[in-house]
Structure to design on (611 residues):
């Protein structure tokens, strides 16, 4: 097809603003999916995606649309919405010429609406504004439309009003795509340049690269090269998404499709890499390729030791469809053998753990998540600390750096005080405040939706965000606030390693790195909670929180006592004393050889302790 009739676009929105539902209606209107096979959130194939109402794994689909006697090829590239998957979103945007910006007519502009819109503008995309859910009783299209005009500079006439659920305005959206999004550029005769914007794994076809062809063309059987990893392989199949894989044998400049590589590991076919031909290929990669950076780390252990091999196999299989996941074996005195896993963010960690438990029928214990710190040794050597057990002795350290982020919060103005208080508790630094809208005529209403909407920016450590920050934001704003964040840099911090000891033995799985000012309160609370969840033994158990060699908190679990005098029916007092002394010697000996079993509730107590 002539590139003048090709349109490549994506849909960007805040979570729960109707992005997936709008994609469903577009698929129906263009006749891409048989109505008998149509399901809600059609492009979201995982159960987790449907349950949570979010897109975890991006999809692509080719559609055919007729307008004014012309036949157009529409390539929709669906993107994840959460900030954890921001790199995948940026690669999907790089593969498009336009983006549909969806805003909920009842909720208005949210934090990720702004973040995704600015990301699209950074890729110089044509943005089509769409105001969705106009059929809701609480919808206020006029007010939200004026917000979009004020913030993004749209003309009020170009905002398309839709209800994806009811199918209202879908034809107008398609017409706007054809009219306003520019066709792709690129010469089919130039050397091949194809951007990998996503990938998946098929047991028969190997790694399947989702690609946008920027120049040149590729046919099945062509010898190709991944320029980032220098891997070379024959393209065993080339085709498009309709929305299932359809072998077409060739892709040319401007088109979106897939290349089945036959590779057995996703590491050799990274998102953001450039594909070219092995012979007479391009010498320049497409711009913007960066390896994905893992920022959150946690240990995953099987609840039963014999499931260790099953966990390894499950992680290997899951990694084939999630190239961002990394893992390496580790051993804990308390939990046995497990794996130290790296994730893109808190949501990514939660999704991976839930998929392992559901899809592979595993029962897992997850240690407290931590971030990747940088330690500068006295000799100037820089170390990356992903596990608290890797922390060098304080005498060997010059300083410790922790990752910081820029958090953007959009909230009704009445919640500014409580959010400011939260940020102070989380070591946040205030940056700026901006009123997005003024209070309207109904501004004195008891409904927070009528308050002036405020944008707050703070800098805060990533370690303060990974446990319960999002829940706290929602609680303090009664669900009205929204959050987005971007990593900025590493900054020096007064950080220490807090160890938990049971009978003088350090339980490495319960150790974590914490700011010095919070160490005493956290240690005190933790030993109190562990005292309640660790079962009593036949011997006394000392629970201690320590900073290096200094004990900062202690609790003692009293031993169970067996009444050894129950069998005495008389006799001299010396006989009873002998039995009690024998019992005391046994308890003393048991204390030296006995092992304290740490239940999973102890690790949950650690998580709750940091909230």
């Amino acid at each position: 097809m002539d590139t003048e009739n090709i349109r490549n676009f994506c849909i960007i929105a805040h979570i729960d603003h109707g992005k997936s539902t709008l994609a469903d209606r577009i698929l129906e209107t263009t006749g891409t999916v048989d109505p008998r096979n149509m399901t809600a959130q059609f492009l979201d194939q995982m159960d987790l995606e449907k349950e949570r109402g979010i897109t975890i794994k991006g999809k692509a689909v080719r559609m055919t649309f007729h307008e004014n006697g012309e036949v157009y090829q529409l390539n929709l590239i669906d993107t994840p919405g959460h900030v954890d998957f921001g790199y995948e979103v940026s690669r999907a945007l790089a593969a498009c010429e336009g983006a549909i910006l969806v805003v909920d007519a009842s909720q208005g502009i949210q934090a990720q609406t702004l973040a995704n819109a600015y990301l699209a503008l950074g890729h110089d995309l044509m943005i089509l504004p769409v105001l969705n859910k106009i059929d809701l009783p609480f919808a206020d299209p006029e007010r939200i439309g004026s917000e979009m005009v004020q913030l993004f500079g749209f003309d009020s006439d170009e905002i398309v009003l839709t209800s994806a659920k009811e199918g209202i305005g879908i034809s107008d959206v398609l017409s706007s795509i054809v009219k306003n999004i520019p066709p792709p550029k690129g010469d089919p005769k130039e050397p091949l340049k194809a951007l990998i914007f996503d990938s998946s794994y098929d047991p028969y076809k190997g790694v399947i690269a989702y690609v946008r062809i920027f120049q040149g063309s590729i046919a099945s059987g062509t010898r190709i090269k991944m320029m980032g990893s220098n891997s070379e392989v024959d393209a065993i199949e080339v085709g498009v998404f309709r929305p299932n894989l359809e072998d077409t044998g060739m892709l040319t400049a401007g088109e979106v499709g897939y290349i089945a590589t036959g590779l057995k590991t996703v590491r050799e076919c990274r998102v953001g890499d450039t594909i070219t031909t092995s012979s007479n290929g391009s010498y320049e990669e497409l711009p913007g390729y960066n390896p994905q950076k893992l920022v959150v780390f946690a240990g995953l252990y099987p609840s039963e030791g014999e499931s260790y091999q099953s966990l390894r196999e499950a992680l290997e299989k899951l990694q084939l469809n999630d190239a961002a996941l990394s893992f390496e074996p580790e051993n804990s005195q308390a939990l046995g053998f497990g794996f130290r896993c790296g994730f893109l963010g808190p949501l990514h960690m939660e999704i991976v753990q839930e998929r392992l438990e559901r899809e592979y029928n595993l029962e897992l214990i997850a240690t407290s998540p931590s971030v990747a710190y940088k330690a500068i040794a006295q000799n100037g050597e820089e170390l990356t600390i992903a596990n608290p057990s890797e922390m060098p002795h304080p005498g060997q350290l010059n300083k410790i750096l922790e990752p910081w982020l820029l958090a953007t919060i959009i909230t009704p103005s009445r919640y500014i005080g409580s959010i400011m208080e939260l940020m102070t508790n989380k070591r946040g630094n205030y940056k700026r405040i901006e009123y997005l809208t003024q209070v309207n005529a109904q501004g004195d209403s008891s409904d927070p939706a009528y308050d002036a909407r405020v944008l707050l920016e703070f800098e805060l450590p990533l370690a303060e965000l990974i446990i319960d920050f999002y829940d706290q934001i929602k609680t303090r704003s009664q669900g009205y606030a929204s959050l987005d964040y971007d990593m900025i840099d590493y900054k020096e911090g007064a950080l220490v390693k807090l160890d938990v000891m049971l009978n003088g033995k350090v339980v490495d799985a319960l150790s974590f790195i914490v700011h010095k000012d919070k160490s005493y309160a956290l240690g005190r609370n933790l030993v109190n909670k562990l005292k309640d969840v660790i079962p009593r033994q036949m011997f006394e158990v000392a629970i201690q929180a320590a900073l290096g060699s200094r004990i900062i908190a202690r609790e003692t679990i009293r031993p169970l006592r067996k009444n050894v005098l129950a069998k005495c029916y008389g006799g001299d007092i010396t006989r009873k004393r002998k039995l009690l002394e024998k019992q005391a010697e046994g308890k003393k000996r048991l204390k030296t050889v006995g092992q304290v079993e740490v239940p999973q509730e102890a690790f949950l107590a650690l998580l709750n302790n940091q909230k």
